[in-house]
Amino acid sequence: MSHTAASQEPMSALDRMSRSLTWKRFIFLIALFMFLALIVFPFYWMISSSFKTRAEIGAREPVYIPESLNLDAYRELFDPSHPSFQDFGRAIFNSLLVAIPTSLIAVILSILGAYAIARLAFPGKNIMVNGILMIYLFPGVLIIIPLFAMLARLGTMLSFDVQDNLSVLVFTYLAQTLPVALYMLVNYFRTIPTEIEQAGLIDGCSRLGVIWRITLPLAIPAVISVGIYTFMIAWNEFLYAFIFLNDSNMFTMPIAVNTIFNNPTPRPHVVMAASTIMTLPVMFLFLAMERYLAEGLSAGGVKG
Amino acid sequence: MQGTEERSVPCFPQGYAMTSLTESTDVSKSSRAYRWRRRWKSQEAQETRLAWLLILPTAVIVLGLVVFPAIFSIWISFHKVGLGDLNNVFDTPFVGLDNFKSVVNDFAFKPGPLPPDWAEANFFQKIWLALTKWNWGAAITTIVFSFTSTVWTVLLGLGASLLLNHPFRGRGITRAVFLVPYIAPIVGVAFVWRWILDPRPSGVLNDVLLNLGLIDLPVAYLAQRGLALLLVILFTGWRYFPFAMLMILARLQAIDKTMYEAARVDGANTWQQFRHVTLPELRYVIGAIFLLRLMWTFNKFDDIFLLTGGGFGTKVLPILTVEFSFRLRDFGKGAATGMILLVMLVVFLLVYTKVVMKNVEEA
Fold this sequence. Notes:
The structure holds 2 protein chains of 2 kinds.
Chain A: H1 3-8, H2 13-20, H3 23-50, H4 54-58, H5 72-78, H6 88-119, H7 125-134, H8 140-158, H9 166-191, H10 194-202, H11 207-218, H12 220-236, H13 239-244, H14 253-261, H15 268-288, H16 290-298
Chain B: H1 4-8, H2 16-25, H3 32-41, H4 43-77, H5 98-104, H6 123-132, H7 138-165, H8 171-183, H9 186-196, H10 204-212, H11 227-252, H12 257-265, H13 270-298, H14 302-308, H15 317-327, H16 331-362
Helix pairs in contact in B: 4-16, 5-16, 7-11, 7-13, 8-11, 9-14, 11-13, 13-16, 15-16
C-alpha cells in the first residue's frame, strides 16, 4: 500500500477495507467476537434447545436451528395430562414464595440498619460492621452443618419442620443477603449530603420521618438494586435449598431443574426449557435495570 | 410516624427537666439513679438507642444464622455428631481431633498413590501422568482449582475491560451482554454447558471437533481426570470474569489521559504504554479482585457440583464437606472438613495481606 498507487487509482472496496483494518483493529475485532460468541452461544443454545422435538434432541448430530417452535418440552413442564408431567408451575410458585419475601424483608431491614450505620454514632458500630463483613470469609458449606443442627433442635422445641419449610429458607437467605444489602446501602447513604436530613430534623421531623421522607426517596436507585439483587440471590440459590428441601412439592426451581436433569431418561430439551424459564426473567430484569445494577455488582452485590 | 420524641415520652413524666434542675443543686439527691436517668435522656443516648433499634433485626438474623453457626461449627468439629444426634447435639461425646484425623486420612482428602507406570516415565510423561492419572485428593485439588481459576478469571476480566475501554459503536449493549454470565442462575448455565459438552456425538463441542477432524471419536469431556478440572476452571472464568471486568473498567476510566500522551511523546508503543502506564495503575484493583475472587472460589460448591458432581478429579473441599455431612451423615467429620477449608483460607489471607502490605510500604 504505497501512497502513490492509492492517489492515482480509484480505491476498490477491498482496498478501503484493508486500509481501515489495521492489525490492532483486527485483533480487537477477533477478541470482541470471541467474547460475544462464547457468551451469547450458550444462551442461544439453551433457548433453542428448549423448542426442539424429542427427535431433534436425540438426533445423531446437534440440530442448530430447530424446525419450528415446538412446545413439547414446555408441555411436559406445565401440562398435567402429559405422561411425564413435571409440575414446574409449582416450583415457580415456590421460588416466588421464597424470593419475594426475602427481597422485601431484606430491603426494609437493610434500609434501617444501613441508616444507623451511615448516620448515627453508637458504640460497637465498628465491631458490628467488620463482623458483618467477615461473613464474606465463611464458606456456605461450613455454615450449613451447624445451621441444620441448630434448626433441627429449635424445630423440635418450637415444633416446626426444618426440612421442606420455605420460611426456614427465607431466613437463611436473609442471613446471606443482609450483609451485602447493608454494605451497598451504607455506601449509597454516605453519598447523600447530611445537610438535607439535618434541615428535616430542624423542621421537626423525627428520625424515622427523615428516613421515610428524605433519605429513602433520594436512595431509590440503590434500594431498587438491593431489592433486585436479593431477589436474584434467593431465586438462584442452590445449596441451601438442596439440603433443606426433600419433598418435590416444596422444590424451588433450581432443585426442580436438578431433579429433571438427574432423571434416568435424559431429556435435555426439558432441562433447557426449565432453565430458560428460570434464566430469562432474571436476564430481562437485569438488562432493563443495567444502569443501576452494574454499580452494585462491583460493590459485591452478587457474592459468588 | 413513630419518632424519637414520642418514644421517650412514656419513660419520663412531663416537667422532669424542671425538677431535675432543682434536684441537681442537692448533692445528696444527685444519686446514681439520677445520673443514669440524665444519661438515658441525653440526645446522644437517644441516638444510640435508636441506632441499636434500627440495626437490631439485621444483627439478630446475622448473628443467629451466620455468626453463631460459625462458632458452633467449631464445637461440632470436635464432637461425634451423626444424624440421630441432631435433636440432642450437646450430649454428643467429645472426640478431640478424631474428626480431623479421619478427614486427613480419608482417601478423598489426601493425595492417592502415584500412577503405576510412574517409575518408567520420563519427565514430560510424568507431568502428563500427574495431570491425568494421579488422584490429587481434595486438598491439593482445591488449591489448584482456586488459584488457577482466579488467575484465569482476572485475566479474562482484564482482557474484557481493555476491549470495552475502546470507544466503539454498541459499547453499552456489549458491556451489558458481558455481564450476563455473572447474573444468570448457576443451575441454568451449568446445565447448558453440560449439554454443550455432552459425551454423545449430539453434543456441540463433539460435533464441532469431529467435523474439524480434531477428534475421531466423541469425548466425554467432563468424565476424564485432568480434562474435567480444566473445563471446570475454564467455566469458572467464563462465569465470573464480569466482576473483575467491571472493577478494572472503572479503574481504567479513571486513569489520567495525559499520562498516555506523555508516554507517546516519549516514544512508547502500545505495549509499552500498557506495561508502564496501565498496569501500574491497575495494580491495587487487581490485587483486591484477586483476593475477593479467591475467597469466593475457595468456598465454591454449586458450580463444580452441578458440572461434574465432584467426580473425575474435581472433588474440592466444599463438595467433600457436603458429602461427609449429608451423604455419610457424619456432621462432625463434615464440620472438620469445613474448618480445614477455613483455616487454609485464613492462612493464605494472612500471608497475602502481609506480602501486599509489604509491597505497599515499599511503593
